[in-house]
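Continuing the series of single-chain predictions for the mutant panel. This is the parent chain; the variants come on the following pages.
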Amino acid sequence: MLRKINVLAAVLVLSALNGFSQELLDGIQIHGNIDIYGQTYNKDSIIGAPVVPEKAGLNAFTNLIATKGAFTAGVRFESYMPPIQGFDNRYGNQKVGIPYRFVNFVKEGLDITVGNFYEQFGTGMILRAYEAPSLGYDNVFDGLRVKYSPFRGVYLKALAGNQRYYWNKSDGIVRAFDGEVQLNELIKKFNESKLRVALGGSFVSKFQSAGISSITLPENVASWASRVQMNYKGFGFTGEYAYKINDPSSDNNFIYRPGQGLFLSGTYSTKGFGINVSAKTIDNMAFRSDRQATINDLFINYLPALTRQHTYNLSSTLYPYATQPNGEIGLQADIIYKVKKGTKIGGQYGTTIQVNLSAIQGHDTTRLSNPNELLTQEYLTNDPTRQGYKTSLFSVGDEIFYRDYNIEITRKINKSIKLKGSYIHQNYNIDLVQGTATGSNVIADIAVMEGTFKLAKKHSIRAEAQHLWTAQDQGNWAFALLEYGYSPHWIVSLLNQYNYGNSNKALRVNYPTAQVTYIKNANRISIGYGRQRAGIFCVGGVCRNVPAANGLTVAITSSF
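Parent structure:
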């Protein structure tokens, strides 16, 4: 079957090269997208930019999807010549290839995929396969997936496969099943009820040969999860509990402790007001298809982050939080309130106030012995079952992992002017997240002011001013941006970051950048030049390091 998929891939490529774009003969539809990201590198020892022998990096992706009737087939071409700095160098081992190809068939409630596929069960605590090209993250499955709905309200999924490991596949095999019942669809008398209820359950197992080891390693590791989702008028509730049997790995120093996690989320919304409160606690929930994998490689599951995804430069790239799968307990609250227009505070168009609070803490934990000396006599005496430590899923320790308290106020002054102001307070465990050894958390306060000004029908200017105060790490930062837009095609941006508060005067440098973007229909082309500050880029608690750089950047995206 996989051989036939590769043949289909070749057919799709030839069709594209022959100039067919929307509709081929016999009613076959083809669509897709192209993404190209390039960066050049100049020597810049002042900002610590690494020397890149190739002088440039290139990441490129092309998706081609063909559909006809009940069938869909697709391929993705990827190129790394070499990978852009900050992406894993193993992407450059092959440089060009087709790591993603599939055939899908859907008919009468039956959905079968052969080849590569992404999937998520519930919140993802025991299974989520997805891609994030900006992070260099892709844990896609390669195998078989079957979805089936035997009747209205019942939805079943089953899959088996290996995960992508750069240009190769993991040794571990993942087998999984998920079922969900929508009670309002299943039971006729509840069809029109305002209370909507869904119940679900999942089972995931991985197999990996134990090989030769000085300790006994389980070759089959199972996990399960149960979930509930309810909605009533403006109220919503989601809850999921997950459990994983002992899974000794490099993440937990090869202990036999089982893992578990609980996620709860409640929402309420009405006109002009909305609130979301979420809580999460996880213990030893790193779940990979290879017990030796590290960093972001071969995760079977995804642990939702309870932190706001900031968009402003200083708040999003200096001290973003990365989820700690070995153990954390956290709470997040997000409140949005729109002050009515026509009032003193609301003004002519109304004023929106958003408050977000995030608090992540470690568990109260008692170590049974030194986790780095698993086979010593001391370890075997103090912890003969190799549990590693004692804790409770609901215990709260003294160590602060992360705090983020922020408020954002948005107000439209008139038809031409819109203002937004933000204040952010962060308490960041830099040693835990970035692996430093400072011995103290970073306390940072960030103020942001943004304004959008319409000069004429097609002309606008957007301006940002940001400032970060901290007595730790690199000290204070200032950021300014000026952006001119000529709708609908052109955007010109000038920005600068200045680390004026660095205790090392030699590092009090500017990071200026200029960028021009052209947009037409589904095509977008951006060209920029300047300095790139070293930092961390995170999406949903998954992060990658971004090294310092000086040079030209080009981004081209198109869909068809």
